[in-house]
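Writing this down once: the sequence line spells out the residues, with the fold written below as integer tokens. I am pasting one below:
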Amino acid sequence: MNKRCMLIMSHKNICKKQQGSAIVLAIFVIIIISLVGAALVSLQRDSAKGTSYEVYAARAYLSAYSASEIALVDLFPLGSTTANETNCSESDPIDITVTLSDDDGFHGCSAAYQCQILKPEASASLPTRYQVVSTAVCENAQTVTRRQITVEAVSL
């Protein structure tokens, strides 16, 4: 018997009712702490997935941007006064695959572009326009991210 019950001998029923209530309270506290811990682990896991998705989305965007720049350099080479239309088509665009180096930060990314010639109507004296659509896909074991960029350029 604990000291408190020994001091109050006339209240034996009260001492017997209080025995075991600490165990119930301890189990309740353990369950609450476990639930809070599980919620924090889940929140951390979701945050890590979101960060991973943002990184791969940025890589995909930059890969598509790089592919459109490569297409524009191929279309308008430095020192040339005319556009190089070898990779462009007036009817169905051709897919041109761009090689992206893993050393440059494009891990798991691939990119391609299509170039289409948009000729003005015969009666209009407008310059020829070119439309470049570049698409990049970055993927790992859990995430696949795709970004597409459309650029229009005019031959002057």
Summary: The chain has one domain: 12-154. The mean pLDDT is 82.
